Amino acid sequence: MKKSLILVGTQWGDEGKGKIVDHFSKKFNAVCRFQGGHNAGHTIYKEEEKFVLHLIPSGVFCENVSCFIGQGVILSIDSLLEEIKQLEEKGIELEGKLRISRYCSLLLPLHAKIDQLREDNKNSIGTTRRGIGPAYEDKTARRSIKAFDLEDSDLLESKLSSLVEYYNFQIKNIHNSEPFSYDEVYRQLIDSYHKAAKYFGDVTDTLEDIYEKGGNILYEGAQGTLLDVDYGTYPYVTSSNTLATSVGVGSGFPKSIYSDVLGIAKAYTTRVGAGPFPTELFCEVGQNIAKQGNEFGATTGRPRRCGWLDLVALKYSAKLNNLTELCITKLDVLDSFKEIKACINYEVDGKTTSFKSRLLHKAKPIYKSFEGWDCSLEKCKNYADLPKNAKEFLEYIESYVGVKIGLISNGPNREDLIHR
């Protein structure tokens, strides 16, 4: 067992990362979330009961596994408390198990309000409307409220009053909406913090201590590679760096970058929100994929756009993340399709182009067709049990991307996994 493993999404998010983190967690001493915010939605089925986690690492269901939220995460304390309550109602105790970095930048209700006002105008880019973008803007502009600021009342009052004044200027001059009340924002924040204070600490030192004592760490990414703020389909991206290489910054523990990287990809492609999507299907086939895959956002409930597997994009993600292995999820969703396709190239004005092209929104996908297996994969327990056509599809993915497929998900439940 390697001392650490980084798990990242290779598409536009929603690849099924939660289930895979949950599966691997029992082999690790700690699981750490290193970027994003409560715009993530990781779905896990535990004894047929559905859980959706937004901030707390998906390893929370494994006993004797410590869970960490690193300083690269934008933290909504209200969302965190709601999640903790839901888990504790199911008998999962978080005190002593969960630790959150004191250096996290906080996402306040005013961030969500500003996000919603922006999305209501004609320049909407399809965010989750939860305030992630405005909160990351504050972090970059050096006006964030950090968790440790709540330990110093004078500093907090100074920073928070400036922040409320900044957003009230926007509210008045741009959005023509009701201003924020400083007293209300302050009271809400203090009340929430007092309930969550016991979970805050120094994540970096604790991870280093686990590592130096021979423990191993699993790093859980949120969203997906193609939503990375620098390397994704900008501006239709999230506000954080979603790549495996950002784990050292997001966790504060640079030794974590020297690890294996497992990339998660669906057997087809989906996207939520606006932005280019070369393999998107606007026909009955796309509707069938959506229906069979139950493709609705775990965070927002929005229907996901669906299309065939984009191997050009997947190969791009594999290179960016230096993937050492692939996991293909939702292979069973394609069980009933007579023909299955995968995009192997793009064409713009008669010329081939790469995923990085600024003309991606004009790209025409070039497909390779595969004969479907037209049977259920439900009872397949190992790779040899898979139909010949399913194995041919998977082996072509391996060959094209240049990364071995080590794990295949053939159903929604925890046990629906095939090791290769």
Keywords:
single chain; 420 residues; alpha/beta; Adenylosuccinate Synthetase, Chain A, domain 1; Adenylosuccinate Synthetase, subunit A, domain 2; Adenylosuccinate Synthetase, Chain A, domain 3; 3 domains; ten-stranded mixed sheet; four-stranded mixed sheet; 21% strand; globular
Please give a structural write-up.
Helix 2 (77-89) runs parallel beside helix 6 (182-196) and helix 3 packs across helix 4 (132-140). This protein has helices at residues 17-25, 77-89, 109-119, 132-140, 153-175, 182-196, 203-212, 247-251, 284-293, 311-321, 388-401; strands at 4-9, 30-33, 42-46, 49-53, 66-69, 74-75, 98-101, 105-106, 200-201, 217-220, 260-266, 269-271, 305-307, 309-310, 325-329, 339-348, 351-353, 364-371, 405-409, 417-419. The strands form 5 sheets. It has a 10-stranded mixed sheet, sandwiched between helices. Strands 14, 16, 17 and 18 form a 4-stranded mixed sheet that branches. Strands 3-4 form a two-stranded antiparallel ribbon. The chain is an alpha/beta fold and 420 residues long. 48% of the residues are buried. A hairpin with a 2-residue loop joins strand 3 (42-46) and strand 4 (49-53). The protein folds into 3 domains: 4-102 and 200-262, Adenylosuccinate Synthetase, subunit A, domain 1 (Adenylosuccinate Synthetase, Chain A, domain 1, 3-Layer(aba) Sandwich); 105-195, Adenylosuccinate Synthetase, subunit A, domain 2 (Orthogonal Bundle); 265-419, Adenylosuccinate Synthetase, subunit A, domain 3 (Adenylosuccinate Synthetase, Chain A, domain 3), CATH 3.90.170.10.
